[in-house]
């Protein structure tokens, strides 16, 4: 099906994959790009991440459908088969980033896609929807001392035939190497035995076909081939079909395309109870950070739009229709619009590898509560004669409700420093309704013990906060420890039982400064979109003169 906003899971996975950040801007991508070395070693962060994903996948049992990429590795680092600082480093890299819609297991998959891309490798497709294990799974990661038969049997159990086994190991072992502290029977100590000497599998840190060519031409220094022959698993694996598979991936292109296919299969090796999403493709226009709230004296609306930038003279404007009054839903033809308050370039290893420049425009506008907001859209002028009306496939971006709204400025995040008992959440509830209940469903996944937390708390009318713009304030405290990416859905239940919800609000945005508030303009132009706006233009009456001028101003601004 075609993408339609909002689509919470797709939106979250897409943002993470292509922008590299949590919704509050904290970047996981920065930890790995550009093909960063891991401090104190001569291997890369990317290599550590790729070894980790395979160790999570390797315990899959294809015949009974258990195990696979389910994040169980978080509970398995004390096992000999998962030896090494590479594992614990990676898990602490990942700790702060999973959220309600990006599971820990999806995060490991995204990390793999980035690791390959940032070390000059290809872009591996990504699906989401993996479900997190909350306990250790079975053991069974292959050991360098295993016989070929036992390696082949093990990979068959995981769902990989002999040539897939060769492909997977070769694509994995183009990164990183073997460490003395972890495998002292393979790698020798350096002059200082406490150094973490890493003998690389091939002579580059890049995701390249050197691992293959150096094997085929006999110049390989792969420690799992040339050192301790009891532990020479790469020798046994690579030669398992008389080099047919290795020969078939010996060019840059065949290596790259083979690795895309086999890594895709590895990332999609999940328990049979999991249904993965469609592939998370880059959205050409991406709307995010949408929030209607109540400021100190009036309502405020904010939204961001991200586009693929093709020219630096691009300008973007946000348009919207009122929710109430004469211009409700733009039926009178009147639309409001504003220029962005700020803009920024966002990127991840994936978008960098795709060679796209992603530019995000942030809008924050004052809203008259008697008008509110019904729906919004954007007009992108690329500065080269092309204009795009970004209207969510024709239906515009609809603001569901304005009965219950999160108020970040009156909320405070749990702080260890102040000994605060929890996260204080304030909701604005329209004073035309007397809700029978106001409550929040809270969720956290980035917890210290890797177990997701879910709990509900009531909010109570708080008359110590004076009403603003026709809204009363309700406060409540989420007392459980929800970890670093707490989110919540805020509900207001009316006397008749119908509930309004401000969905997927993120505590991480408490205290994140809003962009400057932009000036609001109006227009009746039909060329700027607004599904039902065009036909009613004639009713604008006395405002025409002003609107005409604004029209000119808009055009001048776009040039
Ligand atoms: C026959 C199966 C395999 C065996 C016996 C094996 C064995 C090893 C060993 C002994 C190390 C050194 C780890 C250390 O010193 O801490 C290693 C590193 C690594 N393995 Fe494998 N491996 C196998 C398959 C794979 C697969 C299928 C992948 C990924 C698709 C993979 C990815 C990696 C990476 C990227 C490293 C480097 C880690 C770093 O530099 O920190 N391995 N492997």
TrEMBL record:
The keyword Cytoplasm does not apply. GO terms for molecular function: heme binding; metal ion binding; peroxidase activity. It is an enzyme of class 1 (oxidoreductase). Residues 41-176 form the Plant heme peroxidase family profile domain. Its EC number is 1.11.1.-. GO terms for biological process: cellular response to oxidative stress; hydrogen peroxide catabolic process; response to reactive oxygen species. Pfam families: peroxidase (PF00141). The keyword Translocase does not apply. Keywords: Heme, Iron, Metal-binding, Oxidoreductase, Peroxidase, Signal. InterPro entries: Ccp1-like, Haem_peroxidase, Haem_peroxidase_sf, Peroxidase_I. Destroys radicals which are normally produced within the cells and which are toxic to biological systems. PANTHER family: HEME PEROXIDASE, THYLAKOID LUMENAL 29 KDA PROTEIN, CHLOROPLASTIC-RELATED. Belongs to the peroxidase family. Cytochrome c peroxidase subfamily. This is Peroxidase. It comes from Mycena rosella.
């Amino acid at each position: 099906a075609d993408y339609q906003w909002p689509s919470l899971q797709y939106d979250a996975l897409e943002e993470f994959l292509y922008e590299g950040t949590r919704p509050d801007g904290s970047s996981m991508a920065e930890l790995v790009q550009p093909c960063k070395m891991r401090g104190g070693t001569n291997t890369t962060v990317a290599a550590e991440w790729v070894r980790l994903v395979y160790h999570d996948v390797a315990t899959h049992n294809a015949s009974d459908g258990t195990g696979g990429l389910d994040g169980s590795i978080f509970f398995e680092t004390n096992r000999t088969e998962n030896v090494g600082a590479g594992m614990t480093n990676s898990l602490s890299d990942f700790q702060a980033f999973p959220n309600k819609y990006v599971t820990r297991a999806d995060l490991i998959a995204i990390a793999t896609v980035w690791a390959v891309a940032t070390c000059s490798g290809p872009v591996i497709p990504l699906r989401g929807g993996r479900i997190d294990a909350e306990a250790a799974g079975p053991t069974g990661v292959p050991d360098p001392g295993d016989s070929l038969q036992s390696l082949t049997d093990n990979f068959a159990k995981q769902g990989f035939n002999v040539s897939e086994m060769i492909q997977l190991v070769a694509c994995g072992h183009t990164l990183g190497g073997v460490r003395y502290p972890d495998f002292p029977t393979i790698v020798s100590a350096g002059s200082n035995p406490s150094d973490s000497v890493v003998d690389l599998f091939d002579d580059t840190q890049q995701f390249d076909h050197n691992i293959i060519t150096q094997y085929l031409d006999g110049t390989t220094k792969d420690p799992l081939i040339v050192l301790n022959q009891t532990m020479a698993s790469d020798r046994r694996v690579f030669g398992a079909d008389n080099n047919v598979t290795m020969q078939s991936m010996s060019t840059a292109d065949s290596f790259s395309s083979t690795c895309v296919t086999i890594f895709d299969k590895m990332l999609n090796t999940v328990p049979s109870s999991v249904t993965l999403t469609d592939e998370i493709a880059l959205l050409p226009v991406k709307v995010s950070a949408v929030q209607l709230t109540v400021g100190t004296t009036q309502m405020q609306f904010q939204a961001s739009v991200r586009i693929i930038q093709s020219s630096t003279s691009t300008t973007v404007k946000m348009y919207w229709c009122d929710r109430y009054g004469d211009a409700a839903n733009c039926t009178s033809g009147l639309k409001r619009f504003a220029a962005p308050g700020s803009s920024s370039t966002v990127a991840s290893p994936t978008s960098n590898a795709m060679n796209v420049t992603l530019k995000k425009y942030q809008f924050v506008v004052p809203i008259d509560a008697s008008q509110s907001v019904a729906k919004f859209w954007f007009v992108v002028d690329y500065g080269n004669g092309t204009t795009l009306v970004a209207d969510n496939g024709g239906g515009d971006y609809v603001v569901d409700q304005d009965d219950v709204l999160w108020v970040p400025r009156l909320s405070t995040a749990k702080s260890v420093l102040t000994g605060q008992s929890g996260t204080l959440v304030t909701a604005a509830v329209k004073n035309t309704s007397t809700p029978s209940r106001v409550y929040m469903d809270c969720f956290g996944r980035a917890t210290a013990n890797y177990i997701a937390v879910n709990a509900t708390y009531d909010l109570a009318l708080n008359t110590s906060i004076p009403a603003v713009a026709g809204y009363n304030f309700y406060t409540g405290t989420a007392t459980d420890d929800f970890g670093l990416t707490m989110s919540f859905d805020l509900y207001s239940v009316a006397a008749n039982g119908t509930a309004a919800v401000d969905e997927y609000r993120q505590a991480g945005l408490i205290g994140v400064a809003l962009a400057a508030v932009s000036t609001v303009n109006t227009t009746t132009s039909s060329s700027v979109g607004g599904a039902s706006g065009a036909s009613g233009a004639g009713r604008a009456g006395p405002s025409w003169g002003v609107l005409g001028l604004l029209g000119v101003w808009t055009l001048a601004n776009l040039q």
